[in-house]
Amino acid sequence: MGNTHPGATSPLGMVSACAYSGAYPTGYGRYAKNTEGVPEEMFTRTQASGFTHFQQSGTGAIRKYYNYVRVTPMVQPLDDLGQSWALHDERAEPGYYAANLDTGVRSEITVGEKVAVHRYTFPDHHSARVVIDLSCGGLAIDLGRTVPLRAQVESMGHGCAQGTVVMEGVPLSVYLEADTPGWRQMLWYDRRLIPGGTRLDFDSIRQTTLRPFGLIFLGSVRAGQTIEVRMGFSLRGCEQARQNLRRECGAGTPAFEQVRARTRHRWRDHLDRVQIDGGSPARRTVMATALYHSLIKPCFADDESPFWPNSGPYAFDICTMWDIYKTQIPLLQAIAPDRAMDLLESLIRVCEEEGNFPIGYRMARGADRFFRQASALAHTAIADAHALGRSGVDWGWALVHMVDDLRRMYGEDFFEHGVVHPITHTLDLAYAHHCTAKLARALNDRRLADDLERRGHQWVNAFDPAGGLLRDSEFYEGGKWNYSFRLLHDMAARIELSGGDRGFIDTLDTFFGYGAEPVTQPGVSPPPAEMALGYALNRFEGLNNEPDMEAPWAYHYAGRPDRTAEIVHSALTWQFGTGPGGLPGNDDSGGLSAWYVWASLGLFPVAGQSLFLVNAPAFARAALRVGDEEFVIETSGHRETPIGVEGPDADPPAQYVQSATLNGTPLHAAHLSAIDVHRGGRLHLKLGPEPSAWGHGIRPPSHSFHP
Q1: Which pTM was predicted?
Q2: Is 694 a member of any domain?
Q3: Residue 161 belongs to what domain range?
Q4: What's a single GO MF annotation on this record (predicted)?
Q5: Kind of pairing, strands 47-48 and 8-9?
Q6: What HEC string does 212-229 produce?
Q7: Do 203 and 317 fall within a single domain?
Q8: Residue 540 belongs to a domain
Q9: By CB count within 10 A, which of 38, 140, 458, 495 is most buried?
Q10: Based on the domain organization, do 85 and 213 belong to the same domain?
Q11: Is residue 59 exposed (0-12), middle (13-18) or buried (19+ Cβ within 10 Å)?
């Protein structure tokens, strides 16, 4: 399903808004919680009980689902709050979402970076209402509800109100204005109005004591009359929420169209940073959608950290580094470098305040470290940023935190024994030592760099030399085959463990199913036994999980980029589409979509090595705006698939590189340095229908350890 939503968002902004049904995992849609197979339906129709804010994008069982501050336009009594109505005539575009409710209300929402603006068009009615519910959060699934710990709501009259709810240890404040001339404005609690009340305070709320509460505006409307509700949000109190509202919406005038236009302009600017020519309409649509999904998360709330008083970038919904460090962060470094550096600055500050670089970090108290997934992944992004010559970070201070973080959790056992279980963390920590050593050497700390490089070589302890795969261990969402083809810093030595090029390629071919029978995909709610049979095949899952993102590119290191071309082309063609199920797995905060963007460009970033692998692109020409420069990938000999022809009988496009030039100079290697891409230039690829010898001789660099 992808687990994305059609709600209004701003590029990497703090706020999103969407219709709320309570379905998994974004609050939008019809489906129940699922992690395997085809999802079950919670509802038979697309429906909503209102419109909420702060949605996840593309995550799975993330356990913090937000959907705070529900706004519900109603022509029913307050007792009906929480009832869901069918949605019709939905419309979604970047920064805007609209739908008709069965009640006859047309609902439109747009967002800015820290604001949301709702516009409701009512039918003729003597008692219309707009209800603000500050008590709700999460999803309508088992264990999906979020209960505020503390809350306060204040009605100031004249269409103004404010409130703060402490959710997951974070104080979320909202300041709102409603253009409701002649309407009454009241507080409510447990679906009962509080005449004359101006403030509600809740000092200690529990699951058993929570009753819904909030604010209501009510009055008569003529058919076609619109009501606008403007909301500013902050994690630093109601006054800062009011300032955010003023900055983006102005004072006292309808702001919907100006906020919508400003956000549309921001989206256009961001999406224009990748330009493509050629390709079928469907593939161009998927590409634009992937780029859009790549730029929703992380959320940046500058000057909004509730945990430290200083100004500066604050990033949340890093869900999780395991998902985004390979593909999405390199994409941000290319087309949104300022935000990429803000992310690193925020991560360093989290490490200062909480003692660790987080593996995941959400709008909640404490870093979500997701230690079962992985260890020490921020190190790769920091090493890449320094290699690109980025400024704005105290690199010496960053190195201090990188070294300290290597001793946390699994790091102590790695330090003492050179191997840890789950065995994948041995690879994480060895790679992080290598990345940290690069920064230490660049800063002329040779003694530290030598020690880190020595420990970085301990990746060999994770592998069984008898079979060339990882040792038996516990694996997070996969098995040792999924994890055995990670792109390490010394792939030459890794390939030797598998018996050299021939043995490594044979093992990869087995993993990708060359010559094997097709695999039956799991259906609705597959039983554990069915899933176990699938996992026992030890086969490529088709980008359904994070380790599989880089596995197709391992062929490059054995001199077979043509194999990479076949697998990547198949994935782009068969696993992505424009309809429901158009993504082969959770989008994971944009990590999967960023993979699609890079693969369509014919590039793959090797995170932590300041390196790009080169492959046949999906489009005849593409231009990547990298900072102030432009990197162009163009092809010749590229044959398009005929429009409207799909399936195995389609005439496939040429998919093998025959030769290449970079800025007019012959390029015989199937890789580029990140500096080559970021400084701008022109990569020309001549394509053909059959594999060639291009890229077979010169391998991507391997960094061997020399004691």
Answers
A1: 0.96
A2: no
A3: 8-269
A4: carbohydrate binding
A5: unpaired
A6: CEEEEEEEEECCCCEEEE
A7: no
A8: yes
A9: 495
A10: yes
A11: buried
